[in-house]
């Protein structure tokens, strides 16, 4: 096993906090909304608010995480890691960051275009930058759905990399984030 250095404690905390929020709250709520829309209107609105509010929280956390990454660069990858693998890992991380920024923005704009204002956790109202526009809402909702598929695939790719490095290469890379 190659010795590896770890990410800064702040980086590890942000990684695991965001992972938990995305995997345990935002994605399940989004799937529930998209494929199992509740008949009870009040419950449906609560579910949307949970999904949207945690989306706003993720947006803020990813911005903090980007600044944190600049202040605390990630530790180097193992020297024996092939160039193609480095490229794939880098592309996956960039893709995740881009989508973690874009998805809340697109979702927020879609919500506004459908004619619904956003109040984060029903406490903090966020002004609507766009008015009700059903045609725009359909486009933004489609983009949000496509982004959800893309982020799901990137997460699966990220997890596949974790499995590969842990059980096949056995290079200790996972310890960097623990």
UniProtKB/TrEMBL annotation:
Family: Belongs to the cytochrome b561 family.
Keyword Heme included in the entry's annotation: yes
Membrane topology label: Multi-pass membrane protein
Pfam families: Ni_hydr_CYTB (PF01292)
Cofactors named for this entry: heme b
Protein name stated in the entry: Cytochrome b
Signal peptide: none
Transmembrane annotation, as ranges: 12-35, 47-67, 94-115, 135-168
Keywords: Cell membrane, Electron transport, Heme, Iron, Membrane, Metal-binding, Transmembrane, Transmembrane helix, Transport
InterPro entries in alphabetical order: Cyt_b561_bac/Ni-Hgenase, Cytochrome_b561_oxidase, Di-haem_cyt_TM
């Amino acid at each position: 096993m190659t010795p590896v250095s770890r990410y800064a404690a702040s980086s590890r905390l942000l990684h695991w906090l965001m992972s938990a929020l995305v995997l345990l709250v935002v994605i399940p709520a989004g799937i529930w909304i998209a494929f199992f829309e509740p008949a009870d209107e009040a419950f449906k609105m609560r579910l949307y608010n949970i999904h949207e509010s945690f989306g706003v929280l993720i947006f803020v956390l990813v911005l903090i995480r980007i600044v944190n990454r600049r202040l605390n660069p990630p530790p180097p990858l193992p020297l024996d890691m092939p160039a193609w693998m480095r490229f794939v890992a880098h592309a996956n991380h960039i893709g995740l960051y881009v989508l973690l920024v874009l998805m809340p923005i697109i979702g927020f704009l879609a919500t506004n275009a459908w004619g619904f204002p956003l109040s984060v956790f029903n406490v903090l109202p966020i002004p609507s930058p766009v008015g009700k526009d059903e045609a725009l809402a359909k486009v933004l909702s489609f983009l949000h759905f496509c982004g959800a598929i893309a982020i799901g695939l990137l997460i699966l790719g990220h997890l596949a990399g974790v499995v590969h490095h842990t059980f096949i290469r056995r290079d200790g890379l996972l310890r960097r984030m623990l």
